[in-house]
Specification:
Structural class: alpha/beta
Radius of gyration: 19 Å
Shape: globular
Strand order of the largest sheet: 3-4-7-8-9-10-12-13
Helix content: 25-40%
CATH superfamily of the largest domain: Aldolase class I
Largest sheet: 8 strands, parallel, barrel
CATH class of the largest domain: Alpha Beta
Distance between the termini: 55 Å
CATH architecture of the largest domain: Alpha-Beta Barrel
CATH topology of the largest domain: TIM Barrel
Length: 363
């Protein structure tokens, strides 16, 4: 048994609160790896599916037990899907995955910003590659809604083709895919959000989707740092390209107001400081798309109130990741059941009824 194996069993055996306290003492990427391995080994107690008639919803044809999803980046290589499917999430997104395996950027590349309840990462799409991930997805557990975040290799000469290649290899084994053109950690990737580049990219992806053995929804994930004109371009392309929805948003390059000592690190900022910025983008997109496209709200969700605010700003579902590093997986059922209570308090019979009812608060 290796030192890492021993650490996995030790942390898992402490219970979630004590185990989380120990993980916070470790280097962030090491702590994440230990937590993921403990999950995959079945050493973490999990609540199972969490749903109520009020929380159950349908987004782009996906039937979700609740609208609380796991954002991409937590399980990059689809190694813990069985456990994550029992952690209370309504849906889980693995990845990002690129055609070829790649190590990503040099370590350290993940930083906790404790005073800001945030994180900065510059992973650079480190993953095992589409072939290895496809093999894991082929044996994924039944019953959970599982998606995959599509990426492009750093050294690719045709990044648009990279997305298609990952879709072709992995698409038959997932319930949806997300085209990630908004990671700040692969040089020039965000250029693909421009009108012409995004149209060409999504045209190729949608053509490839049509050749899959079954229809799956395709989302596109955008940055929170786009100008109003750039957001309008994204909305126009989205409405005319037959994609199924937009994920808003990825991490930000902004650093205003941070207090933690790692605030100056390069990379994408996630967590609490991203909440307002990403929610304003969400509301703008809802207005620009006239409510015709499902939106998934990501960025700073750490409570039922946060999830509810994003839903009222136009999100049909939400995703989280960074808050788990501070609160643990027991946060997931707390958010879901807390959201149910908020919906009941305000007289909504379903979460779908609440979508977009608070857009004016953000515009």
């Amino acid at each position: 048994m290796t030192i890492n194996d021993t650490a996995v069993r030790l942390v898992a055996g402490l219970g979630e609160r004590a185990g989380l306290a120990v993980l916070k003492l470790l280097e962030p990427e090491l702590a994440h790896g230990i937590a993921l391995r403990a999950l995959a080994a079945g050493l973490v107690p999990l609540p199972g599916p969490v749903t109520t008639p009020r929380l159950a919803t349908t987004v782009a044809g996906l039937h979700l037990p609740n609208p609380i999803g796991l954002a991409a980046g937590f399980d990059k290589n689809a190694t813990a899907l069985a456990a994550l499917g029992q952690a209370g999430f309504g849906f889980v997104e693995a990845g990002a995955v690129t055609p070829k395996p790649q190590p990503g950027n040099p370590r350290p590349r993940l930083f906790r910003l404790r005073r800001d309840r945030a994180a900065i990462n510059r992973f650079g799409f480190n993953n095992d590659g589409a072939t290895a991930v496809a093999e894991r997805l082929a044996t994924r557990p039944e019953g959970a809604v599982v998606g995959l975040n599509l990426g492009a290799n750093k050294d690719s000469r045709d990044r648009a083709h990279d997305y298609v290649e990952v879709l072709v290899r992995c698409g038959p084994f997932v319930d949806f895919v997300t085209v990630n053109v908004s990671s700040p950690n692969t040089r020039d990737l965000r250029d693909l959000q421009g009108h012409a580049a995004l149209w060409a990219l999504l045209t190729g992806v949608m053509d490839a989707r049509g050749n899959l053995p079954r229809h799956i929804p395709v989302f596109v994930k955008i940055a929170p740092d786009l100008t109003d004109r750039e957001l309008a371009d994204v909305a126009e392309v989205a409405l005319s390209s037959s994609i199924d929805g937009i994920v808003a948003t990825n991490t930000t390059l902004a650093r205003a107001g941070l207090r933690s000592r790692h605030a100056g690190q390069a990379g994408g900022l996630s967590g609490k400081p991203l909440f307002d910025r990403s929610t304003r983008v969400l509301a703008q997109l809802n207005r620009l798309t006239h409510g015709q496209l499902p939106l998934i709200g990501v960025g700073g969700v750490a409570s039922a109130e946060d999830a509810y605010a994003k839903i009222r700003a136009g999100a049909s579902a939400v995703q989280l990741y960074t808050a788990l590093t501070y609160e643990g997986l027991n946060l997931v059922p707390r958010i879901a059941l807390g959201l149910d209570a908020l919906l009941e308090r305000d007289g909504f019979a379903t979460v779908a009824e609440a979508v977009g009812t608070g857009i004016s608060d953000w515009l």
